[in-house]
From TrEMBL:
UniProt KW Membrane keyword: yes
Lineage of source species: Eukaryota, Metazoa, Chordata, Craniata, Vertebrata
Residues passing through the membrane, by range: 690-713
Signal sequence segment: 1-26
Any one GO MF annotation of this record: calcium ion binding
Keywords: Calcium, Cell adhesion, Glycoprotein, Membrane, Repeat, Signal, Transmembrane, Transmembrane helix
Membrane topology, from the record: Single-pass membrane protein
Protein name: Cadherin domain-containing protein
Length: 800
């Protein structure tokens, strides 16, 4: 009883020591919880939300989750209630072995912002394992001369449970020779010793069979048994003896199977069979027997299976040497496993975001942890990613890292990133692990549509058919999806008087422009408007481009004769003196063409004449001049001339005018000088003559101008048909728009002239009076026609 009381007291002291050590190592920030092993799945451990002062809604919004250190899903966090539940059955012996207390560390991770709460779960042992003996039979050889009270070491039982559920006691079946004595070891375990209570007699009883029972402290207690076979030997008075009690050896964990570890040998002074020694492992666990083996004769220890420093760092092996007489001696072999860099680093992804918007800065892409099961420099880790990427690694808690974008990304510049997380340890050789993450950049509507040109110039020929496709505009958007779908529209013109909606339309899908009506160059030569391109993003972005439409002229207007008028009430008769020299200016046909460009270039020709060869028409200016002297009596006094006016279009259009010429005698100014005479008159003359001519011309001109004004006023006041020497003056505007072509003899569309011929004793010159409408500037951006001075001043005479 005293022995048992002492044992109980020592057990309590050891337990109190372990508890104090555990409390001294506990981190103040850790939250401790406890649960019994083999607890059913779904059982409640605790309410983490309440313990940590968090709201249940905060758990869901911040994506709370529980991460165990071994990355196994032992626990489950219910985000609706904040309860921490058992996710699988916990086996304390599998997780911690003989370590006590059995603590599983875990963290609760919260995001937005990132926050960690460290906690630990103590797994309590239950009595779910019975003590077991590794050998079904223990053989002990005892000399018959052994003294009473001699103790014999017995093979101990193994119990995977700990604490009060572990191995607590041994008993032996009733017999008259032996009883069991419990022996405590330095590691807190108990070992049975068989004590000789009564002397043995080989001749009386050569063998004894006993049953050794091992009991644990559970409620109810579990037990295990083994057979003890005692062989009584003759006298052997010398036991084996080792040179040293402790042997130490270091073995690298990558040593090949079968490697020699050490040789331990003992000596026995006895001779014969009593001096023969057999070596065995004593009090060796199953793990030791699987890992090492000893030659029973030579005492060489060899490696039986591969070592792993990350699992077991050292082995303590008890070796027993037994001679032929049954005497034995023990020594201890301490095998220290040396770590080698045989474990590559590991990357454990906790969360990942594979699609991030392009305009978000410092976005969390991934949360991961790294670990290396090696130790020392072999377990030291360096984590990195490529340097040319807009991402960076940020250490957070313990071995956790976050992968965060460095700045706002641009999908149009790069839509996909392949990120390689490289984890390298510092061992020799260095081991490296890479984990690839593909991040896609989602599009944001940050690019407005862009036209291929800032302005477009389109040509369309007048008199087009309605709904004619006249051109296209095109815009592109560098965004994607709906953000890149472009819709075209017409913008309100700056000129509110321009009926743009009735002139053109645009296809909203492809930007094709159509003329809605037939355009008229003479009415509208050019117009411009703006086109808008809008994408379908939110908010929508747009841009504009200027479109200028130029209406090309078609030859759709025939020449129009301004003088002489053909619709007058009385025909206009021209008077020509018979004494007129060749080249005398009879009259001038004035015509205009509403078209533009070469379609408005006019030419004149004499189509019919009463006396062919008597008159000619200058082709470029329409002047009708005499071709020869009019002295012949055969020349009829009344001449009828038909002049054809033709434009240069394709096909050409024409108009004709009829002239009546009356040959008379007695003009005070018989003729106008022909161009050759005018050129001769322009030759240098004597200065005195010039002065006299200028003075005389000035006086005569003043007098003549006064007379002409008086006669003109009198003639213009008369209505209806007048005398033969009078020409009617048109009243009102000429119809249509008249186009000016330099050098063709036509008049500008902004001019209308009053034409009058002076009769009677006056001159036969044409007097082109002032225009009756002012000169207004006309924009004509679609036509640029140069003037050739030589061509304008040269005239061709058209005779028939």
């Amino acid at each position: 009883m005293e022995i048992r009381g002492a044992l109980v007291l020592r057990k309590r002291q050891v337990l109190i020591l372990f508890v104090l050590l555990g409390l001294s190592q506990a981190r103040p920030e850790s939250v401790p919880y406890s649960v019994a092993e083999e607890t059913e799945i779904g059982s409640l451990v605790a309410n983490l939300a309440r313990d940590l002062g968090l709201g249940v809604e905060e758990l869901s919004s911040r994506e709370a989750r529980v991460v165990c250190d071994d990355n196994e899903k032992h626990l489950h966090l219910d985000l609706l209630t904040g309860d921490l539940l058992i996710n699988d059955k916990l086996d304390r012996e599998e997780m911690c072995g003989s370590t006590e207390p059995c603590v599983m560390h875990f963290q609760m991770v919260l995001e937005n912002p990132l926050q960690f709460f460290q906690a630990e779960l103590h797994i309590k042992d239950i009595n779910d394992h019975s003590p077991t003996f590794l050998d079904n039979e223990i053989v002990i050889k005892i000399s018959e001369s052994t003294a009473i009270g001699t103790t014999f070491l017995m093979e101990s039982a193994q119990d995977l449970d700990v604490g009060s559920n572990s191995l607590q006691n041994y008993t032996v079946s009733p017999n008259s020779h032996f009883y069991i004595k419990i022996q405590d070891s330095d590691d807190g375990k108990i070992y049975p010793e068989l004590v000789l209570h009564r002397a043995l007699d080989h001749e009386e009883e050569p063998e004894l069979r006993l049953t050794l029972v091992a009991l644990d402290g559970g409620n109810p207690p579990r037990s295990g048994t083994t057979l003890v076979l005692i062989k009584v030997l003759d006298i052997n008075d010398n036991a084996p003896e080792f040179p040293q009690r402790l042997y130490e050896v270091q073995v690298p964990e990558n040593a090949p199977v079968g490697s020699w570890i050490i040789t331990v040998s003992a000596k026995d002074l006895d001779a014969g069979n009593y001096g023969k020694i057999l070596y065995t492992f004593f009090h060796a666990s199953e793990d030791i027997r699987k890992t090492f083996e000893i030659n029973p004769i030579s005492a060489e220890v060899h490696l039986r299976s591969q070592l792993d420093f990350e699992v077991v760092q050292s082995y303590t092996i008890n070796i027993q040497a037994t001679d032929g007489g049954g005497l034995s001696e023990e020594c201890t072999l301490l095998v220290k496993v040396i770590d080698t860099n045989d474990n590559p680093p590991e990357v454990i992804i906790s969360s990942i975001t594979k699609i991030i918007p392009e305009n978000a800065a410092e976005t969390l892409v991934a949360l991961f942890s790294v670990r290396d099961q090696d130790s020392g420099e072999n377990g030291r880790i360096i984590c990195s990613i490529q340097e040319d990427l807009p991402f960076f690694l940020k250490p957070t808690f313990k071995n956790f890292f976050t992968l965060v974008s460095d700045k706002a990304l641009d999908r149009e510049e790069r839509a996909e990133y392949n990120i390689t997380i490289s984890v390298t340890d510092m061992g020799t050789p260095r081991l490296k692990t890479e984990h690839n993450i593909t991040v896609l950049v989602s599009d944001v509507n940050d690019n407005a549509p862009a036209f291929t040109q800032t302005s477009y110039t389109l040509w369309v020929r007048e008199n087009n058919s309605p709904a004619l496709h006249i051109g296209s505009v095109s815009a592109t958007d560098s965004d994607a999806g709906a953000n890149a779908q472009v819709t075209y529209s017409l913008l309100p013109p700056p000129d509110p008087l321009l009926p743009l909606a009735s002139l053109v339309s645009i296809n909203p899908d492809n930007g094709h422009l159509f003329a809605l009506t037939s355009l008229d160059h003479e009415a509208l030569r050019a117009f411009e408007f703006r086109v808008g391109a809008t994408d379908r993003g939110s908010p929508a972005l747009s841009s504009q481009a200027l479109v200028r439409v130029l209406v090309a002229d078609a030859n759709d207007n025939a020449p129009f004769v301004l003088y002489p008028l053909q619709n007058a009430s009385a025909p206009c008769t021209e008077l020509v003196p018979r004494a007129a020299e060749p080249g005398y200016l009879v009259t001038k046909v004035v015509a205009v063409d509403g078209d533009a460009g070469q379609n408005a270039w006019l030419s004149y020709q004499l189509l019919k004449a009463t006396e062919p060869g008597l008159f000619g028409v200058w082709a470029h200016n329409g002047e009708v001049r005499t071709a020869r002297l009019l002295l012949s009596e055969r020349d009829a006094p009344k001449q009828r001339l038909v002049v054809l006016v033709k434009d240069n279009g394709e096909p050409p259009l024409s108009a004709s005018v009829t002239l009546h010429v009356l040959l008379v005698d007695g003009f005070s100014q018989p003729y106008l000088p022909p161009p050759e005479a005018e050129a001769a008159a322009a030759a240098p003359a004597d200065p005195l003559t010039v002065y006299l001519v200028v003075a005389l011309a000035s006086v005569s001109s003043l007098f003549l101008f006064s007379v002409l004004v008086f006669v003109a006023v009198r003639l213009c006041r008369r209505g209806g048909a007048g005398s033969a020497g009078r020409c009617p003056v048109p009243e009102g505007h000429f119809p249509g728009h008249l186009v000016d072509v330099s050098g063709t003899g036509t008049l500008s569309q902004s001019y209308q002239y009053e034409v009058c011929l002076m009769g009677g004793p006056g001159t036969n010159e044409f007097k082109f009076l002032k225009p009756i409408i002012p000169d207004l500037p006309v924009q004509d951006s679609g036509r640029h026609i140069g003037e050739n001075e030589n061509f304008r001043n040269s005239f061709g005479l058209n005779l028939q």
